[in-house]
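Ticket #4471: structure output looks truncated?

Reporter: J.K.
Steps to reproduce: submitted the chain below (78 residues) through the standard prediction queue, then opened the result file.
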Amino acid sequence: MDLPMLEALNAEWRRHPPVHHLVAAYLDYKPADQPGAPMSKEQEAELQKLVQASPQISGAPALDTSAWDAFVNKGGEK
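Returned output as attached by the reporter:
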């Protein structure tokens, strides 16, 4: 998205705000201060153990460039 498109989108939203924003303003909705569901200390500890037990992947898999290499070697790129 480029800047002119962003400016056009902002202008459109000023003229015609998204309905969920209008409903939230009408109902005087205020989001919670802390995102997510409240958890007890036991739940937090269990979640921490689960995260630590999950497998850790380091590094990205090798990228297969054979199709591009074949294209270039056949003179496809000019």
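Triage note (M.O.): checked the attachment and the full token line is present. The chain has a mean pLDDT of 87.
Status: closed, working as intended.
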